[in-house]
Amino acid sequence: MTDRPAAPATCEEYAGLSRRGFLRTAALGGAALSTSAVFGTAFVETSYAAPRRGSSVLVVLSLRGAVDGMSLVVPHGDPAYYTARPRIAIPAHQLLVRDGFFGLHPALAPLLPLWRSGRMAAVHATGLAVPNRSHFSAMEAVEDADPGSAARVGWLNRLVGRDAQRHPLRAVQVGSTVPPTSLVGPVPTMALSDVDAVRLAGHDKWDTHHRRPASMRTMWSGVSGPLGTAARTAFTAIDDLRPVQATSAKPANGASYPQGDLGAALASAARTIRGDVGAEVITVDHGDWDHHSGLGTLQWGSMQAMTKELAGALAAFFTDLGRAADRVTVVTISEFGRRTRENASFGLDHGHGNVMLLLGAGVRGGYHGTWTPLGSATDDDLAVTTDYRSVLAEVVTRRLGASSAQVFPGFSPETVGAVT
Any idea which of 21-35, 208-222, 267-281, 283-297 has the lowest mean pLDDT? Predict the structure, then answer.
């Protein structure tokens, strides 16, 4: 029997990205609140329209590190898959909801109720138009979604900036105080580690007369420029998040999240949505999916454990939402996929094409996308046949009523058929 690798390993670049994210958060002193006014370009608005209540919500779940889409949604109908992965391929007879070509990883079983009710879809062979095997560069490209532009504005910032509304709770990163590139730009957004962590420093149980907020507002009321605007944005966000903080942190409807960062982040996301404070976009990061080694089999390995966590957290999220789930659409995205052929360490190296999962409101369930036989692309890649922006464009136009041209400048999306 071949020895397993001692531990899953990530590439140097992705490990470096993770360290930079930690250092960036530490530099903020553990702050739970940030806005794009700090990280992006300056904006001048100092008053905000009331956030929209009861509107559709898009949750973007980024699977950081480049998940292997051919493990999540297995192309069992392509014989090259089994030839290329003699040790880590998932046997066809163990796949879930298998059709003549695709099947789901067995650890995705908690999501079967969504699949069987037609509220879960998989779009395979998606990705960037040109292969990009650098985590850093590919993340930037995917989240800017505006090739050739020198402007540092993420596609989600363009989405929430499509009209005159400028409320910081319209787009929220949950689970981390470092906003993703997709949220960076001129429109104010919010990043929080969890709902209850958002507070004004010094405004605690000893400040019984609320002197700290009053003094801070007085101090910043007449300050012009980006810092003054950022401070007033923060006050607005803190005030408008209070209805959510006043609710119970216990998940609703008997939902039970798995232990870990993803479950905690999605629990905060569900609480925010149920609180109906006008959040239209919520982003959540989950990693590390950079499985150069130790991806493993169905009996052991990181892929099995992480897929189980992913499915359990998403299933709990939709249970927790209750009736609010009728207006929530989740889409998963990753910077690139993995190569077809396994390496000597029970893992897979950087590839190209990948799978995107869609769950919830407006989703047309089933398998979507066009497949090019494995082995036809260069460098042992899965060829991309659907630009990832076509999937996202379908979501933002049909669920949020946005213009694809405004969110994805210069791009002409193709019909995918995964969203109604």
Answer: 21-35
Q: What is the pLDDT of residues 233-264, one digit of tens each?
A: 788 888 889 899 999 999 999 999 999 999 99
φ and ψ of 266, to 5 deg:
-70, -30
- Local confidence band at 399 (pLDDT 50, 70, 90 cut-offs): very high
- Report the relative pairing of strands 328-333 and 354-360 from DSSP bridges: antiparallel
pLDDT surpasses 70 at 23: no
What is the C-alpha to C-alpha distance for residues 220 and 107, in angstroms, rounded to an integer?
A: 51
Query: Is there a contact between 132 and 138 (Cβ–Cβ < 8 Å)?
Result: yes
Report the alpha-carbon distance of residue 94 to residue 114 in Å, rounded: 19
CA 366 remoteness from chain centre = 21
Ramachandran sector of residue 61 (left: φ over 0; alpha: ψ -120 to 50; beta: rest): beta
* DSSP secondary structure string for all residues of 282-314: EEEEE-----SS----SSSSHHHHHHHHHHHHH
Round to whole Å and give the CA distance between 193 and 66.
23
Contact by Cβ (8 Å): 318, 113: no
pLDDT given at position 3: 58
Tokens 């699977």 belong to which residue?
63
Among 382, 369, 365, 381, residue whose Cα is nearest residue 419: 365
CA 103 to CA 290: how far, in whole Å?
Answer: 22
Instruction: Give the other-Cβ count within 10 Å of 169's Cβ.
Output: 22
> What digits encode the pLDDT tens for the residues 371-383?
999 988 767 999 9
CA dist 142 and 131 (Å) reads 12
The whole-angstrom separation of Cα 191 and Cα 173 is 4
pLDDT of residue 268: 96
Please choose, from the candidates 42, 33, 393, the residue with its C-alpha nearest in 3D space to the C-alpha of residue 187.
42
Candidates 236, 235, 156, 247; CA nearest to 195 is 247
Task: Give 25's pLDDT tier (boundaries 50, 70, 90).
Answer: very low
Sign of the CA dihedral running 356, 358, 362, 368: positive
CA distance linking residue 371 with residue 385, whole number of Å: 7
At residue 420, the 3 state secondary structure works out as coil
The alpha carbon dihedral of 359, 363, 364, 367 has a sign of negative
Q: How far apart are CA 204 and CA 183, in angstroms?
A: 30
pTM of the model: 0.89
Alpha helix ranges (H) inside 198-286: 211-220, 225-245, 261-275
